[in-house]
Amino acid sequence: MRRLTPYLLALPAWMWLAIFLVVPMAAMASVSLQTGNAIDGFAMTFSVSNYTDTLSRYSTQLVRSLVYGGAATVAMLLIGYPVAYWIAFKGGHRKSMYLFLLLLPFFVSFVLRTISWGFLLADDGILFGTLKGWGVLPADFHVLATAFAVIAGLTYNWLPFMILPIYVALERVDPRVVEAAQDLYASRTAAFRRVVLPLSLPGVFAGVLMTFVPATADPVNAQVLGGTSNTMIGNIIQTTYLTNLQYPTASALSFTLMAMLLVGIFAYARALGTENVLEAAAR
Amino acid sequence: MTRLRGKLGDRLLHAYTWLIIAWLSSPIAVMILFGFNDKKSKSNTSWQGFTLRWYQELFGISDLTTALFNSIYIAVASTVVTVVIGTMLGLALGRHRFKGRGVTNFLVFAAISTPELVMGASLLSLFVSANLPRDALTITIAHVLFSLSFVTVTVRARVVTLDPSLEEAARDLGATGWGTFRQVTLPAIMPGVAAGAMLAFALSIDDYVVTSFVNGSTITFPLWIIGSVKTGIPPQVNVMGTLIFGIGVLIAIANAVVARRRT
């Protein structure tokens, strides 16, 4: 009986993961190889035409998603690293307060947060409307419906997910190691570049993973902030599935997106060095 | 000189950190403020005076009210299911060595790292293939799926820190297996279970992407909001957002105070 305990404990969760994660992925793989239409039904033809068609038809949106997701991730890293650094080394006894304040936006629904952000950026909203009224900005100045608005929205929405893992890695750095480097005549910059930065790389790696994947696949920011000329692949998948009911095309698109993200992650892991990655994964 | 420059750098970084916090909070401030806006025109984008009208007419839009309560019911239901099966899996992974543990860990990781969009799309593929109508039930199934790994990981982390000799002692003192679990194991892992439950509830009530695939004609709070972007968001949405924000922050602060008192 005692031997069976772990299996009995795991059984319900296994069934859930098998039926609703593994089987659907298989179902989607099979649908992606079918052809037909929503009215006459779809039939299995083992044709890869869905993949080749989608790649040529939606390459703009695929590339755009990678570029926007990548740009937002770089922006988050540049904006977030100094914050994580300061809280980890200088936050003192108020560290948890700073972290709490950084997490405040998560108490507001993601959709509502994005809309409020769009609201701040509106052409005649409280920010630009006022500035235009003062004559600081030209009357035709606008940010909404530009690539910048979408990238800024993605950056805004996932920034805390970049800051937290970097903070965790930096928090573990013993300040005495930094002092030792300075005692050995390293300048502040050199001590940072050669001691602190390498020690924080696992955190950077985790942060990039936690932000790049959801930001690239996100349909909400492009829909709310991007107007009609900044559609990302997430929007295409949504409309292909839900409005056009083109299940095979949409499944092929979903797999293409997954494959691109996986390739991206592996290329990035190779570039950063396998050891760092394994170390990050082991923690 | 270096010391002086170091001090200045610290001050700049301190100010910068507050700037980022202000940036992250600004949309929340806007949301709260415009819940008090006495708007006359259709759009709620410019400040027209203070009113408490929208708090009094909070449930004035029946579709929105239905959507909000759908979200709450689904969040409660999916949290209960997730906490039960996620805690069980967390216990199995944290406490026992068994065949298939590696595969299970991989599945838990896969469920966390699958993009929401792909998860929603694949669930829709399944429900379409199985001819299952999409409603509150399919939404709840999906929410359990994406919360499950988070609860499992949180509980597992707590179980690993637990000293197994406590349970052995209870057994030696004649407690049954269930008695040991209820009186020793469960209280000890409770903080992990509670954190997992809060996480599951927050993830569920907030979800838009996965839900948009599996909702059929059932509308939840985030879906309703996205649907009304083009026609203009009514101030009631701001008020509901403000109330959810307030309750969430209060629970988090209470939780932190209790945790501090215990240690």
UniProtKB/TrEMBL annotation, chain A:
Q: Where is the ABC transmembrane type-1 domain?
A: 62-268
The record's PROSITE patterns line, in alphabetical order, gives: ABC_TM1
Chain segments annotated as transmembrane: 65-87, 99-121, 141-170, 191-213, 250-269
What keywords does the record list, in alphabetical order?
A: Cell membrane, Membrane, Transmembrane, Transmembrane helix, Transport
Keyword Cell division recorded: no
- Does the UniProt entry include the keyword Cell membrane? yes
Instruction: Please name the Pfam families in this protein's record.
Output: BPD_transp_1
GO terms, biological process: transmembrane transport
What is its membrane topology? Multi-pass membrane protein
Q: Which InterPro entries match?
A: MetI-like, MetI-like_sf
Query: Can you say where in the cell this protein is located?
Result: Cell membrane
GO cellular component terms given for this protein? plasma membrane
| Family, per entry | Belongs to the binding-protein-dependent transport system permease family. CysTW subfamily.
This chain's protein is named: Spermidine/putrescine transport system permease protein
Species of origin reads Nonomuraea muscovyensis
Where is the organism placed in the taxonomic lineage, from the top?
Bacteria, Bacillati, Actinomycetota, Actinomycetes, Streptosporangiales
TrEMBL record, chain B:
**What protein family does this chain belong to?**
Belongs to the binding-protein-dependent transport system permease family. CysTW subfamily.
Which species expresses this protein natively? Nonomuraea muscovyensis
Task: Provide the protein name.
Answer: Spermidine/putrescine transport system permease protein
Q: Which keywords are on file for this protein?
A: Cell membrane, Membrane, Transmembrane, Transmembrane helix, Transport
Q: How does it sit in the membrane?
A: Multi-pass membrane protein
Give an example GO biological process. Answer: transmembrane transport
**Where does the protein end up?**
Cell membrane
Q: Please classify the protein's predominant subcellular localization into one broad category.
A: membrane
Provide the Gene Ontology terms for cellular component: plasma membrane
Spans traversing the lipid bilayer: 12-36, 72-94, 106-130, 136-155, 239-258
Output the InterPro entries linked to this UniProt entry: Bact_Polyamine_Transport (IPR051789), MetI-like (IPR000515), MetI-like_sf (IPR035906)
Q: Which residues form the ABC transmembrane type-1 domain?
A: 68-255
